[in-house]
Amino acid sequence: MSLQENTKNLRKQVAPFEKSATKESIWQLINTLVPFIILWYLAYQSLSVSYWLSLVPSIIAAGFLVRIFIIFHDCTHHSFFKNRHANRAVGTAMGVLTLFPFDQWGHEHSVHHATSGNLDKRGTGDIWTLTVDEYMEAPLKLRLAYRFYRNPLVMFILGPIYVFALKNRFNRKGARKKERNNTYLTNVLIVALAGLLCWAIGWQSFLLVQGTIFMLSGSIGIWLFYVQHTFEDSYFEADEEWEYVAAAVEGSSFYKLPKLLQFLTGNIGYHHVHHLSPRVPNYKLEEAHNQSAPLQNVPTITLATSLQSLRFRLWDEKTKNFVSFKDVKALAKKRVSIQAKPEL
After folding, report:
1. Strands 254-255 and 130-131, sheet pairing
2. What is the dihedral of CA 154, 189, 85, 125, to 10 degrees?
3. What residues contact 70, with CB distance under 8 A and at least 6 apart?
């Protein structure tokens, strides 16, 4: 079967799952927001005993905040509700809780979907990725910056602070008025909510509870995004060879998680289905995966195997897989050796 026929068939198989169900969407809002609020309150009350005790509800609350982000994420794709205004209203509200402006992130994420795995269109809504040749030919300053960026401490600890708390507060260059106003509105609502909670429980208690939940959920969110596109035999091609469906099913992994974690992460582990059709709401991703045999043969990772992605740093265009800095160092020595070898 040709690539064109495969593409048509896959999209046809997923199409029935692209319609949201209002009752399911509302129920997901309830079973996500209510536990989050209760856990947040329990974490605050636990502070009177010990900060370490408050970590228990805070850790679980962080999981529910990730789930809130998935609802926000679906709203930006206009897949959570049938009505676009409902998606926008709920998405903006969830953006306040997750510190993401609806229009700005929606734009960047749409670009990510349209260019994921395209070597000639990197740089918007994705993780900074260099090829082996680009890295080896780069000046020392750029290589050091790239190593710093790819350090796990920077990517999963400092990264969420920079992106969620700082970068998201400013409009991107070229943003239209509607997008700029949405960012301003989100910022005002964030300040108002934070101010209200600081007034109600004290700024120290607010920072201890919300700061812990924010850091944990932020790190989890970055990890999910990273690991679902950074696995050994992922997909990257030059623009003339790039193909949307291939990028979706080969460049986005199926992150097979335990049921509880699957629930808390809003089924985003079925990332290949989501990239194939962003209009499928998160609560239908698993069903779409199960009903399509080809989708069950995509790259699959587990909690254990996903840890291997921490060593993947650069994309090797020759072997079509991710490699580590150590691998590149060995390759560089080999090239120097070949170049130094005298001709016969």
Report:
1. unpaired
2. -20
3. 265, 266, 267, 268, 282
Residues contacting 216, CB < 8 A, separation 6+: 58, 59, 62
DSSP state of 22: H
Residue 168 and residue 101 in contact, taking contact as beta carbons nearer than 8 Å: yes
Closest CA to 61 of 206, 212, 224, 222: 212
pLDDT tens profile 15-58: 999 999 999 999 999 999 999 999 999 999 999 999 999 999 99
Inter-helix orientation angle 84-98/177-201, to 10°: 50
Tokens 């921490």 correspond to: 310
Cα separation, 314 vs 309, in Å, equals 11
Q: By residue range, what is the domain housing residue 190?
A: 3-340
Q: Residue 222: left if φ>0, alpha if ψ -120 to 50, beta else—which one?
A: alpha
In the chain, how many domains are there? 1
For residue 23, give the H/E element and its range.
helix 22-46
Distance CA 239, CA 108 (A): 19
The β-bridge partners of 254 are: 270, 300
pTM, rounded to two decimals? 0.92
